[in-house]
Design goal:
Mean pLDDT: 85
Number of helices: 7
Low-confidence stretches: 248-252
Strand content: under 5%
Radius of gyration: 26 Å
Structural class: mainly alpha
Number of domains: 1
Shape: globular
Distance between the termini: 64 Å
Number of strands: 0
Helix content: over 70%
Largest sheet: none
Order of helices and strands: HHHHHHH
């Protein structure tokens, strides 16, 4: 019992850190100064921007793991790539949802075919297609190889999405933190943003670990089911018990 205690603590530590980080992020987000133009509505920034940044990191992680698979043909890399892509899709979906909520009072519409919005939606559907490829191919090696190629190619969309607000005229505002020459935010707002970004990273790590654990369970169930089918096909199934014929039950 004593030897299992440290392992239980270490396994729960990321979740505890994530909860504390989220609590701090909410505290800093609500205590930060109101925006001079948008007021409290601008606090959406602390969800909208960190979610897309961590989504980008997740998709880059998918690319790195895809390259790892192509180099080694080890399916562990493929499992990591799939989990990272699922996390990125969830976060990018959150980015699109919060962006639409923010756009309605500011632009007067939920959605417009702005370059940044359109390209972000394209990135979202490309990675949905990546997940669809993974679900549509039964053979593990073939699935890993084809999805790895797509995972490497799809990441090229990220810089196009990110720099679209500087390359074209768009309704979406230009970069706030990394605008050339200066940071377009006061220091308390930057602190609140950094804490929010840390919270998103902490929660994403927990979700990534949990997805891998679920993948282990799915793999174990699949292996057990395959072993059962193979046993039946090989004639190793338990034979039915012999029928004992005695007395009146004897059939002549």
């Amino acid at each position: 019992m004593t030897t299992d205690a440290p392992s239980r603590v270490s396994s729960r530590l990321p979740a505890v850190v994530a909860v504390v980080a989220v609590a701090l992020a909410l505290l800093f987000a609500f205590l930060s100064p109101r925006d001079a133009t948008q007021g409290d509505l601008a606090r959406m920034f602390y969800v909208h921007v960190p979610s897309v940044i961590v989504a980008y990191l997740a998709f880059v992680g998918t690319m790195v793991c895809a390259i790892g698979y192509l180099r080694t043909r080890n399916l562990r890399w493929d499992r990591w790539a799939g989990a990272s892509a699922e996390l990125g899709v969830v976060l990018l979906g959150l980015t699109l949802a919060t962006g639409m909520i923010w756009a309605k009072p500011v632009w007067g519409v939920w959605w417009t075919w702005d370059a940044r919005l359109t390209l972000t939606a394209l990135l979202f559907f490309v990675y949905l297609g990546y997940l669809g490829v993974r679900r549509s191919i039964a053979d593990p090696q073939m699935r890993a190889a084809r999805s790895a190629v797509l995972g490497v190619v799809a990441v090229a969309l990220i810089p196009i999405v990110h720099f679209s607000v500087t390359w074209w005229r768009t309704l979406h505002q230009p970069p706030t933190l990394l605008r050339p020459g200066e940071i377009q935010m006061d220091f308390p707002l930057v602190v609140a943003f950094v804490v929010s970004l840390g919270a998103f990273l902490a929660v994403s790590i927990v979700l990534f670990r949990t997805r891998l654990e679920l993948d282990d369970v799915e793999a174990a169930l699949f292996t057990a089911a395959s072993s059962g089918r193979n046993a039946v096909l090989a004639g190793d199934a338990i034979d039915p018990p012999p029928v004992t014929v005695t007395g009146e039950n004897r059939v002549l």
